[in-house]
Amino acid sequence: MIRHEISSVRHVNWASALNVLAGLWLIASAWVFKFAPHSRGLWNTVIVGILIALIAIWRSAGGPRWAGLSWFNVVLGGWMIASPWIHSYVDHSRQAWNSGVVGLLVVVLACISETAPEGIADMEGPTVK
Questions:
Q1: Which of 90, 74, 104, 76 lies closest to 41, judged by CA?
Q2: Residue 121 in this model has a pLDDT that exceeds 50
Q3: Where along the chain do its domains lie?
Q4: Neighbouring C-beta atoms of residue 67, cutoff 10 Å
Q5: 3-state class of 121 per DSSP?
Q6: pLDDT digit string, tens, across residues 45-84
Q7: Contact 87, 41 (CB under 8 A)
Q8: How large is the C-alpha radius of gyration of the chain?
């Protein structure tokens, strides 16, 4: 039982940590891929990157009780996949590919993070039987 709990916590931690990095990359990529200054694509990428990183941090810190937070990152990842069409930068291939690939990564990692705590009753301490 304890081994399963530790394994589940590790899934939450690595998946959430990678989503934090994905969020930080989205923030940086707005300048790395040179979005037009003050464009909707730039602001979308920065704001969604911040939200993804913050939600992943909260998810990691919250343990199994906050598993539902991962669904917000699933939605945000889906939003990033659709963003090139919504904000009209689909013709800018580097920015569009970055949004799609990072969005897909966020969706997958958020699903892993959400399902990791299944079977854990309480993370306060180990249960000895």
A1: 90
A2: no
A3: 19-115
A4: 18
A5: coil
A6: 999 999 999 999 998 888 777 888 889 999 999 999 999 9
A7: yes
A8: 16
Q: Alpha carbon 42 to chain centroid distance?
A: 18
Instruction: Choose the weakest-confidence range: 31-35, 94-98, 101-105, 120-124.
Output: 120-124
Residue with tokens 């249960």: 127
Q: What is the pLDDT of residues 6-32, one digit of tens each?
A: 454 555 578 889 999 999 999 999 999
Q: Are 53 and 78 in contact (CB under 8 A)?
A: no
Show the tokens assigned to 43.
Answer: 């602001």
Residue 3 has pLDDT above 80, yes or no: no
C-alpha–C-alpha distance, residues 5 and 97, integer Å: 37
Distance CA 55, CA 23 (A): 10
User: Minimal CA–CA distance to 19: which of 66, 41, 52, 64?
Assistant: 52
At residue 97's C-alpha, the angle toward residues 42 and 82, to 5°, is 70
